């Protein structure tokens, strides 16, 4: 291990400023609250006492207790399915703020305003899109009260498809304002990933085909051309040997009748 690496990894405990102490304490509280909120949303039960339910005869089934049941009911009523994304966004925002706090020397209010506008556009359009295209959850609208208001306001002017396209365009604008990412860069990244996946699958399939086409010969004689020639010529020699008369055969070695008559005349 090099000395440079050990020096870079030598972390020391240093005291932070009072402002950063308060900031980190707030972020920790917000993160824990987001985790509690996610648990309350996942364990929501319609029969629990809440903002929309006042009568019950059974114990509270929500893991967050009475407070968790109320919070989950309010969020589902307001945002619908989008309520599940709220704790995730909060935790991600806290982590991002905590990590980049050291590099921030000043606050860019213009950038903050653009991010705020983009976040509002994302929330409102997402709720409206969920209300138009998804089924209801429990006894709540899939887009909540916010989604119902926006979808009902757009449907008299557009049909279902037109309202969806209009909301998607506003959603794309809000995403750019909130993240600062260009859609050209996003499409290029997506195209590169797709082309890489297609190239990987194609190369993998080509390698499999080449491997299947190559088969080792079962007979060693097939791999030797000279042995193959000998095998092809061997039946001809055997056939000629079978056709050629054998000198030891008695049928071919016995004298014919003409030769016997000549031998008798010569003897007389």
From TrEMBL:
Where can this protein be found?
Cell membrane
Q: Which UniProt keywords apply?
A: Cell membrane, Membrane, Transmembrane, Transmembrane helix
Q: Where does the record locate the signal sequence feature?
A: none
GO CC: one term?
Answer: plasma membrane
What is the protein name stated in its UniProt record?
FtsK protein
Whose protein is this, by species? Proteus mirabilis
Listed transmembrane segments: 21-47, 67-92, 112-134, 154-178
Query: Where is the segment annotated Disordered?
Result: 211-237
- Point out the gene that encodes the protein: ftsK
Outline the extent of the DNA translocase FtsK 4TM region domain: 20-191
Q: Per its UniProt record, what Pfam families does this chain match?
A: FtsK_4TM (PF13491)
| Bilayer topology term | Multi-pass membrane protein
Source domain of life is: Bacteria
